[in-house]
């Protein structure tokens, strides 16, 4: 599980968090240039079509925003990609592998990890325990290893490594002072940070963030953004569903706009901003 | 990080190391538990001595008390694995116990033949230890069968499914059509409503004889530990105090002591399961299954494992509990036994292992054995008076100001009233203290102490401990 | 369009829902076996009809008690495990009244023995000549008292036990209700003792035995009365839900409590009404159940409870009509199962049906619209 330290290309940050690099986060692998490819995705609920033939590709190491008015099908699309919902049609490929209709844990296992719209912390566990759940394929997850005396030694060894990684990541996100706090006692913004930090410990290649800035105060929002940019620079790919259009326009290099279950348009923030359909969709619906 | 770092470099004070033995932390909860147990025994002894309970009866009570404490603590621990750790709402505990007891009985009962009455059924005549393993495995298997479809369900649905399952088990045991059959030349069955006579070798004797094997080899004897040590020395010694037939009393004590040892085993195993990455995932499932799944954990697999292991342990508790009772009938296994164990767990605090043990002990001492002991003591003190046979006869004299018959009736009905009291205790607990005595859930979800790792300086890439940030 | 697409659809249904397909096959096999048994004379048509009648009557009791459980389950959001003991409490309160009246307020036997429903074998219902025809007033009074008493009991328990912790969620409430169940059950046992006793005089009970093809089917006056009472009350609930403002509010509450609160429905009042209606029906069902089967025991309600849960889940929690339909299905299952399996497993079969429904279709087979 131990990985080589990777120094991020000297970001000229002034904040003190910037010189704390995540030594153990390896960044994304490099199997394909297009890690995520969605084609013809469909999802119906009863008679309602929530997602209707959605197609898009996400470039490696990019930060893409997925926006659209309420009920446009963004969250459903997300849920279909990550396995929370089983799509009724279409195909989802990740790193060239078909992941359509897999269970959420299988999707996560392949390096595509999501966060939730409303931060869902594991309340009656400490922040540190929350973090330590995340690393994949832990030796001690096997029942017999956690019980048998000799095997348990190897578990302890790995636990030490996981503990260190968890602390480092908490330090990176500046929430290490909360490590032994119960997660249910955290503020809304701190929970969002915890969720992102926890997702990182699964060694993802790509992160799907569902409204990561909802309910976060402005100063924390800035910090969260900084972290996301920094992680992007380290090679992680991001797809962000967001309600706040300006936030997406300022921070993403590519924007996908959904409306009534379909892709309305996609392109650079500039293109999207000037697109007639988008303006209409937003004015016609709710901003 | 890198592999060349040895464990000694991590901060763990010597005090902590001394307090943590085999993964058991004796610093607070353990001490509390020991103090409480001591208190319980003192109360029992004092009550008996003050009333002038005969010595033999007193010793029997103490042995019984120990038996119940061990049984309820073990069952409570197994349930804690389900409910406290994984959030699995199992109210069919008694079904798994019944499965364990019956399978052990069938496997280890002597083969049908001469000596058994025609109405009775026989068994396969296997050694008792095979029977016990078989019973435990069978309970686990029943858990597996239930788990495969049912674990996807909401907590309240799982509750209904498990209790229905436990009743299905009981109906099956009651059924005439399964009461006795010829299987591969063996006449075996479930005995129907008459139940099964557990006429296999006494578990205690069986255990001591098994332990005796190495000594027998050296000394060239048969069952040396049983014949010469247990019967020859221990029982003989006790005969000084209880001249008339001391063996049952000693057996009672010895078996209870064995159960306490097994309880220790339960505690260590379940605690280890809890304080490990495995237990961490279980806790995460309890808190939010979707999130845990989205983090890449095959939550169903974890739930199944937790459920099956818990069910197997419940089966084992059943075997240890009913295995020495001589015989069982299906109606022994009514849902009230499940209810007992839930109360024990809730008293102690779901999610805490030391709490489970404590809850088991409190339940055994004050709610289960306590009222019966109280009845015994009072009746002895009053010279075994005749109680009225019905509520009406008890109430009649009350109108004339005579409450004695009513009190006697109450005392005589203590077995019903104690269930009433348990119900009330459960209600009060849920109102006042839903987390129980130790339901703080502070037991760490890791196999190592979760303190900030102390690292070598000079690594350059991390800040180890910079002052103001640590407020643990 | 054509046959091939229908075939494809059927095939994909089987692939997607193997459980449903297996169930279908089992159902077909059971029907075949039934036909075989009827053809070979293993089972007479008259006996089958007797079993069906028994199932329907049992189903009416389950359905009647199930309405209350279903309503509280959906509106208060917890499975009330004490519901079975409300049935027992209702039955005992009603039968104590019936005994006292039928016993001439102490003229036929000791009044205490009467009030304790002949506890300890002190007086027998048969000796008092209790049945719906000989002592109609006593039975009617018992019926009313059983309903009223259970309403009072349900309201008191809600006020002192459930209401204070209503905010803490369904599971703590469920656990608490188990405590209530045990407390109630064993108080009843303490007062009325643990004996099962006969309460009716069946010897003088009028009934008919019409000839049916190859035998006779017995129908007693109590069977008819059960159908009338249960049917009438169910109809009453139907009218209440459809025609009154209270009924609308209750339907809204069971759909979404938070929304109902926002839209100004007085939730506390609705909750009280739920207990009143549910409690009343439950108590009456307990009384009728005892009248119909002729014996009373301290754990009657508990033994019925799981069957009621089965009915409620089968019908879809929150659906009153579902509870009635589910009750009939469960009642018929429990009664007619003996056609195929040993009688010891009849109840197990009903539980098996419930477990299957929970696993295959947890929203219930009649679900779709809740409460309405």
From TrEMBL, chain A:
Domain ABC transporter, chain residue ranges per copy: 36-285
Record keyword Transport present: yes
Record Gene3D superfamilies: P-loop containing nucleotide triphosphate hydrolases
Presence of keyword Transport: yes
Annotated GO MF terms: ATP binding; ATP hydrolysis activity
Gene Ontology terms: cellular component: plasma membrane
Annotated stretches, region: Disordered: 1-31
Biased composition (Low complexity): 22-31
InterPro entries for the chain: AAA+_ATPase, ABC_AA/LPS_Transport, ABC_transporter-like_ATP-bd, ABC_transporter-like_CS, BCA_ABC_TP_C, P-loop_NTPase
Keywords assigned: Amino-acid transport, ATP-binding, Nucleotide-binding, Transport
GO process terms (BP): amino acid transport
Domain of life of the source: Archaea
Record's function text: Probable component of a branched-chain amino-acid transport system.
UniProt similarity note: Belongs to the ABC transporter superfamily.
Name of the protein: Probable branched-chain amino acid transport ATP-binding protein LivG
Lineage: Archaea, Methanobacteriati, Methanobacteriota, Stenosarchaea group, Halobacteria
TrEMBL record, chain B:
Organism name: Haloarchaeobius iranensis
GO cellular component terms given for this protein: plasma membrane
Spans through the membrane: 31-55, 61-81, 88-108, 128-148, 155-173, 253-270, 307-324, 339-368
Pfam families: BPD_transp_2
Protein name: Branched-chain amino acid transport system permease protein
CDD domains found in the cross-reference section: TM_PBP1_LivM_like (cd06581)
Membrane topology: Multi-pass membrane protein
Keywords tagged on the record: Cell membrane, Membrane, Transmembrane, Transmembrane helix
Cell compartment(s), UniProt: Cell membrane
Region (Disordered): 439-472
Principal cellular location given in the protein's record: membrane
A single MF term (Gene Ontology): branched-chain amino acid transmembrane transporter activity
UniProtKB/TrEMBL annotation, chain C:
MF-aspect GO terms: L-isoleucine transmembrane transporter activity; L-leucine transmembrane transporter activity; L-phenylalanine transmembrane transporter activity; L-valine transmembrane transporter activity
Membrane topology classification: Multi-pass membrane protein
Keyword set, alphabetical order: Amino-acid transport, Cell inner membrane, Cell membrane, Membrane, Transmembrane, Transmembrane helix, Transport
Positions of transmembrane segments: 21-39, 59-79, 91-117, 137-157, 169-188, 224-241, 270-292, 304-330, 337-360
BP GO terms, sorted: D-alanine transmembrane transport; L-alanine transport; L-isoleucine import across plasma membrane
Record's subcellular location: Cell membrane
Leader peptide range in chain numbering: none
Major place of residence: membrane
GO cellular component: plasma membrane
Family: Belongs to the binding-protein-dependent transport system permease family. LivHM subfamily.
Protein name: Amino acid/amide ABC transporter membrane protein 1, HAAT family
Organism: Haloarchaeobius iranensis
């Amino acid at each position: 599980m131990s990985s080589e330290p990777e120094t991020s290309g000297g970001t000229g940050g002034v904040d003190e968090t910037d010189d704390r690099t995540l030594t153990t986060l390896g960044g994304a692998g490099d199997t394909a240039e297009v890690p995520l490819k969605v084609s013809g995705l469909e999802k119906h609920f009863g008679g309602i079509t929530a997602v209707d033939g959605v197609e898009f590709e996400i470039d490696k190491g990019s930060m893409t925003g997925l926006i659209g008015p309420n009920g446009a099908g963004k969250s459903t699309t997300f849920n279909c990609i990550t396995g929370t919902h089983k799509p009724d049609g279409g195909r989802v490929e990740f790193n060239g592998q078909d992941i359509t209709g897999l269970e959420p844990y299988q999707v996560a296992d392949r390096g595509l990890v999501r966060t939730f719209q409303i931060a869902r912390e594991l309340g009656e566990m400490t922040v540190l325990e929350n973090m330590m759940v995340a690393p994949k394929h832990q030796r001690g997850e096997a029942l017999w290893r956690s019980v048998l005396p000799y095997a348990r030694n190897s578990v302890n060894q790995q636990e030490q490594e996981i503990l260190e990684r968890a602390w480092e990541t908490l330090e990176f996100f500046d929430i290490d002072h909360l490590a032994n706090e119960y997660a249910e006692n955290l503020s809304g913004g701190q929970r969002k940070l915890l969720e992102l930090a926890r997702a990182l410990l699964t060694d993802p290649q790509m992160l799907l963030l569902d409204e990561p800035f909802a309910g976060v105060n402005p100063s924390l929002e800035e910090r969260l953004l900084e972290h996301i940019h920094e992680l992007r620079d380290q090679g992680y790919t991001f797809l962000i569903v967001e309600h706040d259009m300006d936030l997406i326009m300022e921070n993403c290099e590519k924007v996908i706009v959904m409306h009534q279950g379909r892709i309305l348009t996609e392109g650079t923030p500039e293109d999207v901003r000037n697109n007639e359909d988008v303006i209409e969709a937003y004015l016609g619906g709710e901003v | 990080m890198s592999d060349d770092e040895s464990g000694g470099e991590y901060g763990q004070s010597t005090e902590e190391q001394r307090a943590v033995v085999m993964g058991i932390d004796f610093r607070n909860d353990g001490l509390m538990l020991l103090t409480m147990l001591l208190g319980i025994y003192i109360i029992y002894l004092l009550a008996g001595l003050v009333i002038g309970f005969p010595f033999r009866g007193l010793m029997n009570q103490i042995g019984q008390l120990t038996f119940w404490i061990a049984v309820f603590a073990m069952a409570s621990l197994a349930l804690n694995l389900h409910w406290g750790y994984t959030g699995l709402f199992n109210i069919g505990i008694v079904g798994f116990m019944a499965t364990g007891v019956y399978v052990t009985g069938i496997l280890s009962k002597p083969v049908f033949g001469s000596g058994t009455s025609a109405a009775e059924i026989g068994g396969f005549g296997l050694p008792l230890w095979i029977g016990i393993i078989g019973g435990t495995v069978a309970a686990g298997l029943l858990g597996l069968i239930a788990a495969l479809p049912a674990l996807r369900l909401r907590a309240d649905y799982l509750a209904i499914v498990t209790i229905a399952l436990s009743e299905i088990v009981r109906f099956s045991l009651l059924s005439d059509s399964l009461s006795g059959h010829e299987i591969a030349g063996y006449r075996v069955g479930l005995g129907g409503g008459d139940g099964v006579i557990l006429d296999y070798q006494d578990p205690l004797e069986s255990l001591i004889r098994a332990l005796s094997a190495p000594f027998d080899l050296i000394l060239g004897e048969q069952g040396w530990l049983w014949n010469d040590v247990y019967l020859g020395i221990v029982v003989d010694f006790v005969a000084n105090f209880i001249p008339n037939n001391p063996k049952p009393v000693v057996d009672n004590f010895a078996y209870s002591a064995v159960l306490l040892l097994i309880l220790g085993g339960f505690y260590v195993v379940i605690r280890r399961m809890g304080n490990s990455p495995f237990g961490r995932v279980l806790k995460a499932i309890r808190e939010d299954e979707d999130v845990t799944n989205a983090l890449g954990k095959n939550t169903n697999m974890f739930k199944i494992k937790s459920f099956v292991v818990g069910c197997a342990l419940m089966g084992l508790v059943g075997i240890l509990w009913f295995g020495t009772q001589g015989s069982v009938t299906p109606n022994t296994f009514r849902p009230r036994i499940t209810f007992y164990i839930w109360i024990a767990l809730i008293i102690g605090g779901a999610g805490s292992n030391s709490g489970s043990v404590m809850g088991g002990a409190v339940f055994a001492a004050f709610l289960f054995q306590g009222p019966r002991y109280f009845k015994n003591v009072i009746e002895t003190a009053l010279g075994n008076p005749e109680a009225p046979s019905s509520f009406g006869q008890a109430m009649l004299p009350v109108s004339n100001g005579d409450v004695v018959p009513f009190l006697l009736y109450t005392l005589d009905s203590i077995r019903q009233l104690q269930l009433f009291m348990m119900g009330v205790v459960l209600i009060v607990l849920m109102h006042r203290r839903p987390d129980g005595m130790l339901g703080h859930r502070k037991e760490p979800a890791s196999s190592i102490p979760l303190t900030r790792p102390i690292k070598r300086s000079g690594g350059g890439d991390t800040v180890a401990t910079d002052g103001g940030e640590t407020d643990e | 369009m054509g046959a091939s697409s229908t075939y494809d659809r059927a095939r994909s249904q089987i692939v997607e829902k193997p459980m449903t397909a297996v169930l279908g096959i089992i159902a077909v096999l059971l029907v075949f076996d039934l036909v075989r048994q009827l053809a070979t004379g293993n089972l007479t048509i008259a006996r089958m009809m007797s079993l069906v009648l028994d199932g329907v009557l049992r189903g009416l009791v389950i359905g009647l008690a199930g309405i209350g459980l279903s309503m509280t389950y959906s509106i208060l959001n917890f499975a009330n495990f004490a519901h079975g003991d409300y049935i027992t409490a209702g039955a005992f309160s009603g039968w104590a009244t019936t005994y006292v009246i039928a016993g001439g307020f102490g003229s036929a036997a000791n009044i205490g023995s009467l009030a304790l429903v002949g506890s300890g074998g002190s007086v027998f219902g048969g000796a008092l000549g209790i049945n719906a025809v000989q002592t109609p007033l006593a039975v009617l009074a018992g019926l009313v008292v059983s309903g009223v008493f259970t309403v009072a009991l349900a309201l008191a328990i809600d006020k002192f036990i459930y209401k204070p912790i209503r905010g803490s969620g369904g599971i703590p409430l469920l656990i608490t209700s188990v405590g209530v169940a045990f407390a109630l059950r064993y108080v009843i046992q303490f007062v009325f003792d643990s004996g099962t006793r006969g309460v009716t005089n069946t010897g003088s009970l009028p009934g008919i035995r019409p000839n049916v093809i190859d035998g006779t089917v017995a129908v007693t006056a109590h069977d008819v009365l059960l159908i009338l009472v249960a049917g009438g009350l169910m109809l009453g609930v139907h009218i209440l839900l459809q025609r009154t403002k209270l009924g609308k509010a209750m339907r809204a509450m069971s759909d979404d409590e938070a929304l109902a609160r926002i839209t100004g429905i007085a939730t506390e009042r609705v909750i009280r009404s739920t207990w009143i209606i549910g409690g009343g029906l439950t108590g009456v069902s307990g009384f009728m159940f005892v009248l119909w089967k002729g014996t009373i025991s301290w754990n009657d309600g508990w033994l019925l409870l799981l069957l009621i849960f089965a009915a409620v889940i089968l019908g879809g929690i929150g659906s009153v009509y579902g509870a009635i339909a589910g009750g009939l299905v469960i009642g018929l299952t429990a009664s007619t199962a003996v056609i195929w399996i040993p009688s010891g497993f009849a109840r197990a079969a009903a539980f098996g049906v419930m477990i299957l429904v929970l696993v295959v279709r947890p929203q219930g087979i009649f679900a779709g619209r809740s409460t309405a």
